[in-house]
Structures are given as structure tokens and as C-alpha cells.
């Protein structure tokens, strides 16, 4: 009896989560894509978070510079100690990866996103059939939560402070404008990344099922994501 009750409760939780996801997507789609609705408190919180992230990035860059100097010292003093040099090179490579300074290669997924080809229904808002910046942002955030180590949109490397904004039928990423299709590359655990996009309660699945937004997911073993353009 208890097992049956637990099973029913589990199903109810999944159903509620799915319905909540649909309601969130419907609400987002009714908003004007050229406006962002936030409270003053939310604005202050965002500014605070951005300031923290800026400080963190600056801190990482200083650490990277210190490691570079340490590596040169180690190589001079311990030229025969291969293990020490390899360790320092690994740490330096890791720092370059997370700050976007180096090209990253690994397994992951490639997501292709385009506007819906469904016919506009009577009294339907045409914005519901269009891909907006908030849609891309939500999918990118889902990938980050799934542990993606590197992400790009139309070959543009995405970092913590990257800007993604609507610009008519196009989307501006890091001040560069791109048209459809929008190609998102993500490197990380293949199965986890796929689940973040293909699971029934995911934002991408709801966009696809409710609004007919075109979303295609391909698996790749050797995805290459270039460094942030500033460092190229």
C-alpha cells in the first residue's frame, strides 16, 4: 500500500512539474521580446551578481598569470622532473579553459534551433512561434546546470558575462548579430547534456511540443569550441 502511495505521489510531483514548466513558458511567450520585466530589487541583485562574477574572472586571470610564472620557474629548476611540469601545465590548461582563453575539444551535443513552421492560429500571438533571446538563455542555463564545461552559440564562445539579446529576426551574441538557425554547441557528459534538453519537463521540450519550435539535438564525440574572440 505504501509503495503504491509513493508511486502515486511521485507521478503527481512529475505532473505538477510538467504543468508548471508549461505555465512558465506560456507566460514568457506572452511578454514583449524587446522588453525585460524585472523589479528594482532584482536589478540590484543582478548588478551585485555581475560585480561578483567580474571580480571572480579578474581573480582567475591573476591566478593564471601566477601559475604561468610558477611554471617557468619549475621548468628552469626541475627540467628533469616531468611530473611537476605536467601537473603545472594541466592546472594552467584548466584555468585557460574556464576563462575562455583556450580552444576546448571533447564529447557533447550540438543543438539546432529555428522558428516554428506551424501556421498561426486564430488569435494566436505570432511571438509564440519565434525564437527569442530568453529561449536561448534558458536552454544555455539548462546546459550549464547539466555540467557543460564549454558552450558556444553560432561559434561564439559563451562566458559568464556574455550578452544574448533579440535584434528583430536575429539574435545578438557578445555584440555580434547572428541569424537563424541558431547552433548551440556544448561540451560535457553526453547523457547528462542530452537529458537537459530532451527530458519531457525541459524548457527545450516544452518549446518544441507546445509551440512547434524546431529543435534538433545531435551527439558528437569531438566537438571543438573556439576561444573567446577577445583572446583570438
So what's the CATH class of the largest domain? Alpha Beta
Radius of gyration: 21 Å
Beta-strand residue percentage:
15-25%
CATH topology call of the largest domain: Alpha-Beta Plaits
The share of residues in helices is: 40-55%
Low-confidence stretches: none
Describe the protein in words.
The chain crosses the membrane at residues 12-28. Keywords: Coiled coil, Membrane, Transmembrane, Transmembrane helix. Residues 43-77 form a coiled coil. It holds the Pfam family DUF881. This is Division initiation protein. The chain is an alpha+beta fold. The chain folds into two domains: 40-97; 105-117 and 127-225, Alpha-Beta Plaits (2-Layer Sandwich). It is built from six helices and eight strands. It has helices spanning 2-30, 40-77, 82-98, 133-145, 190-198, 203-211, and strands at 104-114, 150-153, 156-157, 164-167, 170-173, 176-178, 182-187, 214-225. A five-stranded antiparallel β-sheet has the order 3-2-7-1-8. Strands 4-5-6 form a three-stranded antiparallel β-sheet, with helices on one face. Strand 2 (150-153) and strand 3 form a beta hairpin. Helix 2 packs antiparallel against helix 3.
